[in-house]
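Risk register update: the risk of archive-format incompatibility is retired. Evidence:
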Amino acid sequence: MTRIERPLYLERLKALRGKPDIKVITGVRRCGKSELLKSYISYLQEADPEGNIMYIDLMDLENEELQEYHALYRYFISRTKPGVHNYVFVDEVQLCRNFEKAINSLHAKGTCDIYITGSNAFMLSSDLATLFTGRYLEIHVLPFSFAEYRAYHKDQDLDESFEKYTLQGGMAGSYIYEKEQDRNGYITGIFDTIITRDLRKKYGLRDDSVLLKTADYLLDNTGNLISPNKIADTLTSSQTKTNHVTVSNYIEYLCRSFLFYRMQRYDIKGKKYLNTIEKYYMVDAGFRFARLGKRNMDYGRLYENMAALELLRRGYRVYVGKLYQKEIDFVAMDDQKKIYIQVSGDITSPETMKREIAPLLSIRDAYPKWILAHTGHPAYDYEGIHIMDIARWLAGEE
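Archived output:
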């Protein structure tokens, strides 16, 4: 399999090198956490040739005896060297019961630079503060971006690549399969493992049928405003009896596993966050196609999902905008700026253009306003709104 350098994450790791915190690499299953570790280790071997690099993959049968936390701790302590930088890497750390005791004790010694990865269900962001009592930094990894997809599939036309990426997504492990059926089987296998093994085990679920159907509902309604009540009513009417409390809990589990990302609504006029009815975006469009096929395909919604994840990837805090009765797809913020964004599949018709542009023109402040659409053209401005081809924007060309 071709290895693609992922500079966004690699540079973050380089910047954290030598810092006293435990570095925890999180992300959905098979998004490239282990490969990122290997790329970083390759960098260290060149940047610090005298460094003492200690790497353990607890999935490897040869390391089975290290799946006990005392043994894991003794393994690294016995191999720590004085007078050099000691780097500790543990892949699939959750396979060691009470691993946090070994890692925290090792960290307390102050002699090692520590990096760990683990299965998403056991390395949730919400768990890290409890496990490591505030002495950690999280590096959150997403599946391949469109730019990374293009780097992997060299020499493809931009628009051709975009059409394929829209359906295949960024789960790079699927790229080795030539047939669509096999790619979908790989991605569906990841999805099923998260649902039927990770989440069912972590939360002690006796039956995962409601969880699966809740996940399918979210996949089929990406970009729509979602309420647990509506999902519960829909499932109950189709002979899967449940209630809004159960559905709300299951949505939380799915978000904690990084299969979905919740986008809170933001009142643009009142400049406040709203806690009712949110949107949920899947971690990768490939899950939708692999799981549900082309049923009820709405490319505009898929582009919206791709834009949401790309904004997160680029470091923005992302919200759904509300202005009176109008909706703005995204309000993207960082420490320096705010951007209002509409996403559309096609804006060639005057009616569609008018519909997409109207909410942006209603905003009275001076922050940038964008439309991302599948235009096939270079960027241009219209009534003060910057309009970009979504494929070129995702590729980093605009």
